[in-house]
Amino acid sequence: MKESHPRSVLIMNVDYFKKVNDHYGHHIGDRFLEHVVELCQQHLTQGELFARYGGEEFVISIKNCTHQNAEEIANRIRSYVGKTPLLTVEGEVSVTLILGIAEATRQVGETVSKLLNKADKALYQAKASGRNRVCIYREESELN
């Protein structure tokens, strides 16, 4: 994966989605995911990749974006989604997000798969840190 401009990948997970499905049913769970997608799309521009990655996970790929810029975007999305619950006949269903970010490196052997794996590691760090947050992947050498 060789690029002359920075690219960041974000993996986003809807916090406690299983609880929404269990409590409200799958029809509300589906509406819930659609709601999250609509809110996220309001903060993305044309040319940015936004796709469902699996279950309640989504991936966002942003060209010409450092991990610092991606963190700003991720926090803007996370904050907006958190302030905008889904309105149902049973009441409001609030949502929080966790996001993991990785920036592509110019290292030989960097692949999309490795970049996604790094973003996924950051996502799990965010999940372990208490949810409703954003974490950036850091190389082991950066942590020491």
Secondary-structure topology with pairs:
Layout: E1 7-14, H1 17-24, H2 26-41, E2 49-54, E3 57-63, H3 67-82, E4 86-88, E5 91-93, E6 97-103, H4 112-128, E7 134-136, H5 140-143
Parallel strand pairs: 6-7
Antiparallel strand pairs: 1-3, 1-6, 2-3, 4-5
Overall geometric form: elongated
Q: Count every helix, treating DSSP H or I runs of 4 or more residues as helices.
A: 5
Indicate the percent of residues in helices: 40-55%
Order of strands in the sheet with most strands: 2-3-1-6-7
Report the strand count.
7
Order of helices and strands: EHHEEHEEEHEH
Oligomeric state = single chain
Task: Tell me about the largest β-sheet.
Answer: 5 strands, mixed
| Alpha-beta content class | alpha+beta
Mean pLDDT reading: 89
Low-confidence stretches: none
Radius of gyration: 16 Å
Description:
By secondary structure, the protein is an alpha+beta fold. The protein is 42% helix and 26% strand. The protein is built from five helices and seven strands. The chain has helices at 17-24, 26-41, 67-82, 112-128, 140-143; strands at 7-14, 49-54, 57-63, 86-88, 91-93, 97-103, 134-136. The strands form two sheets. The protein has a five-stranded mixed beta sheet. It has a two-stranded antiparallel sheet with strand order 4-5. Helix 1 (17-24) crosses helix 2 (26-41). It is elongated, with a radius of gyration of 16 Å. The chain starts with 6 loop residues before the first strand and ends with a helix. The model has no long low-confidence stretch (mean pLDDT 89).
